[in-house]
Design a protein that fits this description.
Length: about 475
C-alpha cells in the first residue's frame, strides 16, 4: 500500500511551508502527475534495473551514478535510483540532481522532510549503504552490562565529548511487572522527553536530550500487555517504564537488541518514526479548516511539547492516520521570567499559538500581558474567534486583535496586511525594560516580512521565535 502525500500538502498557509523560502514547484509534463507515478510503480516494471535484487552500495559506487539517466541518491542510509522519478519530481529535475550520486538526506530534509519518499520510491530502492567502521581506534565495546545481556552504549567517545553524556539503562522485574529504568544523566527531563512505542515485535523508547536522541530498541523476550506506564523522577533525571507481563513467568533477559539500540544519535540523523492513530472526530473549524482528533494506540506514550509539531501520513485506502514524533526548536526556557508575550499569526499559523497561549496563561507567573494579532482574509476565515474573544473577556492579561486583508464594508476592526505601522502600535512593552517574546507563524512570505520588520523595530534575535519547518 502506498502512503502518498497529497500534492496540495502542506496547505499553502501551513507552517511547514515557512522554511521553504523561495522554493517553487515546476510544471510537470503531461502524464507525469503523482497519479501517473503511482501507476508506474504499480506496473511491475523494474525501476532499478536490478530485477528486484537489493545490493550493498559503497560510496565509490554511489558517486558513479550521477547523471539524469543513471541517478542514485542516498537518503538515511538507503540508496534509491531516482532516474525513473526524475520527470515526476514536483520540484524539477535540476533540484533532484543536486543530490545525484551523493547523500541527499540533509538537502531533502531542508526542503521537505514530510515527503514520504520511502513509500513513493519503494520500487526504486537499490539497497543500503555499506557501513564504514566509524568508530575511533581507542574505542572498544564493553561486552556485558547489567543483567548480563545487552551491549553497552555504542556511542563513540568522540561523539560523547561533543554532545551530552550518554544515558544508560537497566531493568528489573517482579512477578507481574518489568521496569526499564533510563538514567538520562540530565536534570531537565519530563514526560515530554520520552516517547515509547510497542508495535509488532519492537519495543522502542526514545529519550530526547537536547538535540540528541537516546534509543532503547528491543525485541522483548516475552509478551506484555498493551498498556504501560511512564514515570519521571525529574530531579535525578530518571525515567521508569513499567510494563505488565502477560504471564507471571520470570524473564531471563529483556530481549534482543534491535537497530541502534542503546545509542545516542544527533536528532537530525534519525528518521521520523510513525505510529498509526485512529481518527476519532473531524469538525469544521472554519469553512476551509478542519479540526482532527486522533487517538494514539494504547501501546504508545507520546506528548507533543509546546511549540512543536508532528507530521501526518494518510493512507488513501486506509482508515487510520500515522503521526510522527514531535519536531521543532521551540524551547520552553524562552518563557523564563517572561513579562510580555506577543503572538503574530496568519491563517493556520494560529495552530502553535493555541498551546502557547494556554501554557503561558496558566504557568508563567511573571507574565503581565499576552497579545495575539491574528491576520486573515475575511471574518469567515478566523479560527476559534468566539473562544478567543471569550478568553480576552475572562483574562485581563490577554488581548486579541483581528486584522483582515479582504474585509466587508461592515468590518470596523483593523484592516490590511502585516506592516511596520501595525506592529509598532501593537508591540508596546508593559514596562520600558520588560522581558518580551514575540512568536510568529504563518505562510513563508508573512513570516519573512514580519521578521524583517521586527528587526527594524529593534527587537533582538532572542526576543523573536519564528515557527518554521526546519
Ligand atoms: C534530495 C534532493 C531533492 C531536492 C533538492 C528537492 C527539491 C524540491 C523542491 C525545491 C520542491 C518544490 C518545493 C515546493 O513545494 O515548493 C520539491 C517538491 C517535492 N519533492 Fe523534492 N527534492 C529532492 C528530493 C526528492 C525526493 C527523493 C523525493 C521523493 C519522492 C521528492 C519528492 C517531492 C515531492 C512529493 C514534492 C512536492 C511537495 C509538496 O507538494 O509540498 N523530492 N522538491
Amino acid at each position: 500500500m502506498l502512503n502518498i502525500p497529497s500534492q496540495a500538502f502542506p496547505a499553502p498557509s501551513s507552517q511547514q511551508r515557512v522554511a521553504s523560502g523561495g522554493r517553487s514547484k515546476v510544471p510537470l509534463k503531461q502524464g507525469r502527475s503523482l497519479m501517473d507515478w503511482i501507476r508506474l510503480t504499480k506496473s511491475g516494471k523494474d525501476l532499478t534495473g536490478l530485477k528486484g535484487r537489493l545490493i550493498e552500495v559503497t560510496e565509490e559506487e554511489l558517486k558513479k551514478h550521477n547523471t539524469k539517466d543513471d541517478c542514485w541518491i542516498c537518503i538515511r542510509g538507503f540508496v534509491y535510483n531516482v532516474s525513473p522519478y526524475m520527470e515526476y519530481h514536483p520540484g524539477g529535475e535540476d533540484e533532484l540532481m543536486k543530490a545525484a550520486g551523493s547523500d541527499g538526506t540533509d538537502l531533502f530534509d531542508q526542503v521537505h522532510r514530510w515527503v514520504n519518499y520511502e513509500s513513493m520510491l519503494k520500487e526504486c530502492l537499490v539497497g543500503r549503504m555499506a557501513v564504514k567502521p566509524a568508530v575511533p581506534k581507542d574505542y572498544h565495546e564493553e561486552k556485558k552490562v547489567l543483567n548480563g545481556m545487552l551491549p553497552k552504549s555504542q556511542v563513540p567517545d568522540a561523539l560523547a565529548k561533543e554532545g551530552p553524556v550518554s544515558p544508560s539503562y537497566d531493568w528489573f522485574q517482579t512477578d507481574s511487572l518489568v521496569t526499564i529504568v533510563i538514567y538520562t544523566k540530565q536534570k531537565d527531563v519530563n514526560l515530554d522527553s520520552v516517547i515509547v512505542d510497542h508495535q509488532y515485535d519492537s519495543f522502542r523508547a526514545e529519550t530526547i536530550i537536547k538535540d540528541y536522541s537516546y534509543l532503547i530498541h528491543i525485541e522483548l523476550s516475552h509478551a506484555i500487555q498493551e498498556d504501560f506506564s511512564v514515570r519521571v523522577v525529574a530531579n535525578v533525571g530518571k525515567i521508569e517504564i513499567v510494563l505488565k507481563k502477560k504471564e507471571n513467568t520470570s524473564w531471563e533477559c529483556l530481549g534482543h537488541p534491535l537497530e541502534n539500540h542503546n545509542s545516542l544519535i544527533p536528532k537530525k540523523d534519525t528518521g521520523l518514526y510513525y505510529r498509526k492513530c485512529q481518527l476519532i472526530s473531524k469538525e469544521d473549524a472554519t469553512h476551509d479548516t478542519k479540526l482532527f482528533c486522533l487517538m494514539l494506540p494504547p501501546s504508545t506514550h507520546l506528548q507533543v511539547p509546546i511549540g512543536q509539531h508532528v507530521y501526518l501520513k494518510l493512507t488513501i485506502t486506509g482508515d487510520f492516520v500515522s503521526i510522527s514524533n514531535p519536531e521543532g526548536n521551540f524551547k520552553i526556557a524562552q518563557f523564563q521570567e517572561l513579562e510580555d508575550l506577543f503572538l503574530l499569526a496568519a491563517g493556520t499559523g494560529f495552530t502553535p499559538m493555541v498551546k502557547i497561549l494556554n501554557y503561558a496563561l496558566t504557568n508563567i507567573s511573571s507574565l503581565r500581558k499576552v497579545k495575539l494579532m491574528f491576520f486573515n482574509k475575511t471574518e469567515d476565515d478566523i479560527i476559534w474567534r468566539s473562544q478567543l474573544e471569550k478568553l480576552a473577556f475572562k483574562d485581563k492579561r490577554f488581548d486579541v486583535e483581528f486584522v483582515l486583508s479582504q474585509p466587508t464594508s461592515e468590518w470596523n476592526g483593523k484592516k490590511g496586511c502585516i506592516s511596520p505601522g501595525l506592529l509598532s502600535e501593537f508591540l508596546k512593552r508593559s514596562l520600558d525594560n520588560s522581558k518580551v517574546l514575540i512568536c510568529i507563524c504563518g505562510p513563508a512570505a508573512f513570516t519573512e516580512q514580519g521578521m524583517r520588520m521586527l528587526h527594524d523595530l529593534n527587537f533582538s534575535k532572542d526576543e523573536i521565535h519564528a515557527f518554521t519547518a526546519s
